[in-house]
Design brief:
The chain has twelve helices and twelve strands. By secondary structure, it is of the alpha/beta class.
Length: 382
């Protein structure tokens, strides 16, 4: 059994894939070629954004967003500690400071109540209001919020954007896992000043390598993003008007994504069906994922909670013995990562994230997972 079955998808679209790749090989525009522009147009229309800017990875998308907003040293960027490392890594790469905010235990997304307290703490330099990095010293200024749409479920943007708006803080949506998700009638990648997604192969819409995209309504920011992704390019490639990166999207990856996007809405519905059956089969046997009313998850992962680490190890071992793969997203929250030691966080600072990290694991999830295989999985939870 596959954790994610890319081979089954490839068999479905092999003719379209091969035709798209052949077109790129024929015209030879391998970097930012016409397929990149076609993909940008198609995905912008899908999510309801004015601009889409393709780039080399989801990490580059987040980095470009921070650079476009001129975030750097002395700035605090508030985000979740329960996510992939890249979310906070890019904050440090631009010289800013990650300030972590604990999550809601039901959705695994950043808790808006705790977010407001954390913003107040940064504003006042008062560690008694919320845990701040030891490096803060009252000198940080809050500059942005990066909510993460974890496992495919959008964050609570009504609450988050209201908090940010009161303080004139831009929101950067980390939608690396949630392309295709919906929050109260709006699609993922349509929130914040800039939204960022990833096309890593395991994502709901993934390429055969690395790729990413930024979305924005702001003409000026779109222009800056396009400049930043090509070394800060100005009117031509030998005029550099700002510091940028080599963040371009390969045309071959765009061509692959166009073939995959043609069946993406159908695959998204198939993911809903897989999740619904899991919910039925596992109810009462584990803590199953919660999708609040008015939300739709893209189901990048199907992650459950069990009683404790010992039960998790036993469950994973039993599934492995039966030939069923699993994964743990994420075994160590970001505030406990060695790379962030200098921030001075310690075990116990973000108890919900730490508790989830001890108890969570993910089951196979993809559009081609059969009901028979799901019943095999569920039978091992008896």
């Amino acid at each position: 059994m596959n954790f994610i079955d890319l081979a089954a998808q490839q068999r479905r679209i092999s003719k379209e894939l091969n035709a798209n790749i052949a077109r790129v090989l024929a015209h030879g525009q391998y970097i930012n070629g016409p397929e990149v522009r076609e993909l940008e147009s198609a995905l912008a229309a899908y999510v309801g954004a004015k601009h889409a800017v393709g780039c080399a990875s989801g990490t580059d998308a987040l980095l470009m967003a921070l650079m476009a907003l001129d975030i750097g040293p002395g700035d605090a960027v508030l985000t979740s500690p329960f996510t992939f490392f890249a979310t906070a890594e890019v904050i440090s790469l631009v010289g800013a400071t990650p300030v972590f905010v604990d999550i809601d235990p039901a959705t695994f997304n950043i808790d808006p109540v705790k977010l407001e307290k954390a913003v107040e703490a940064v504003e006042k330099g008062d560690p008694t209001l919320h845990l701040l990095p030891d490096t803060a010293g009252g000198k940080l200024r809050p500059r942005a919020v990066i909510p993460v749409d974890l496992f495919g479920l959008p964050a609570d943007y009504d609450a988050i954007e209201a908090i940010a708006a009161r303080r004139n803080l831009p929101v950067i949506e980390d939608a690396a896992q949630s392309f295709g998700g919906v929050y109260k009638g709006r699609k993922s990648c349509s929130f914040g000043r800039i939204a960022c997604t990833s096309f890593f192969p395991a994502k709901p819409l993934g390429c055969y390598g690395d790729g990413g995209m930024c979305f924005t309504e702001d003409d000026r920011l779109a222009e800056r993003l396009r400049s930043i992704r090509v070394h800060g390019q100005g009117s031509d490639k030998y005029e550099n008007i700002r510091i940028g990166i080599n963040g371009r999207l390969d045309t071959l990856q765009a061509a692959i994504l166009l073939a995959k996007f043609a069946i993406f809405p159908e695959e998204l519905e198939l993911r809903q069906q897989v999740a619904r059956l899991y919910n039925e089969l596992l109810a009462g046997k584990a803590t199953i994922p919660q999708v609040p009313k008015g939300y739709r998850s893209a189901w990048a992962q199907y992650s459950i909670l069990v009683e404790d680490g010992a039960e998790r190890s036993a469950r994973i071992a039993k599934l492995k013995e039966a030939g069923i793969p699993t994964a743990i997203y994420y075994p160590k929250p970001l505030h406990l990562q060695t790379a962030f030691t200098d921030l001075g966080y310690k075990k116990g600072d973000f108890p919900v994230s730490e508790d989830c990290a001890r108890r969570i694991f993910s089951l196979p999830m993809h559009p081609y997972l059969t009901a028979e295989d799901q019943r095999r999985i569920a039978a091992l939870f008896q």
